Structure to design on (238 residues):
């Protein structure tokens, strides 16, 4: 127990002193996760809205597939990206394996189905309110999608936060394609796994506390953003 207490004290000291190794790992984690979230948002939000608004053959199958891919195992994603980026893979010539870019690719693949599925649900609910109006005015699909995305912006921010929370806590895929290389691809989750196996509980605890704080911050932001979204929804129904 004394060792655990000392580890907590050392972890607090690392955070308060802004230990350079700790800061480097945290900043790289945020860089990778935010880059993946941006790429996923550019893909997932329009595709989710498109699935909600348009009707075409095979749409139902795509919806089912997207929902199924929300539970895609991270290690499978990591393996597939590894095979694509390895020297023997089709993209090996780019030499992206064991780089932050490879980690961004893996996280993007992992969270894009989540953003598509959640966006489709948000936009589908809004489309049920406005579909008749759009049809009567002859609004084209691209304009309708843009209007619905804007109207659902508060709910969509919570979708993005859900994607961020999923990506920042990922360890399996980024471990496979990043290699957990010090000063290159070591992020919070992979560093926690490594330092725990080494017995360096202080750094692992410090990173764990920061990761937990990020998770709590995401949940708090989600609640704050959902409040005006619920209010505007109540106003529309009234």
């Amino acid at each position: 127990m004394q060792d655990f207490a000392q580890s907590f004290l050392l972890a607090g000291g690392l955070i308060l002193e802004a230990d350079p190794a700790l800061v480097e790992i945290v900043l790289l984690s945020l860089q990778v996760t935010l880059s993946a979230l941006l790429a996923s948002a550019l893909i997932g939000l329009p595709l989710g809205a498109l699935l909600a608004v348009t009707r075409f053959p095979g749409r139902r199958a795509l919806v089912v597939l997207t929902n199924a891919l929300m539970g895609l195992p991270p290690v499978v994603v990591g393996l597939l990206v590894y095979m694509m980026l390895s020297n023997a893979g089709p993209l090996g010539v780019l030499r992206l394996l064991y780089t932050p870019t490879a980690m961004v690719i893996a996280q993007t693949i992992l969270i894009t189905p989540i953003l598509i599925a959640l966006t489709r649900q948000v936009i589908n609910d809004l489309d049920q309110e406005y579909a008749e109006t759009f049809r009567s005015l002859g609004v084209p699909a691209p304009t309708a999608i843009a209007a619905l995305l804007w109207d659902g912006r508060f709910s969509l921010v919570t979708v993005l936060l859900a994607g961020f929370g999923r990506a920042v806590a990922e360890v399996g895929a980024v471990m496979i394609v990043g290699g957990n290389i010090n000063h290159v691809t070591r992020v919070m989750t992979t560093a926690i796994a490594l330092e725990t196996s080494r017995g360096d509980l202080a750094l692992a605890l410090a990173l764990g506390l920061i990761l937990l704080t990020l998770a709590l911050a995401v949940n708090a932001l989600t609640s704050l953003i959902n409040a005006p979204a619920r209010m505007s929804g109540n106003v529309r129904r009234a």
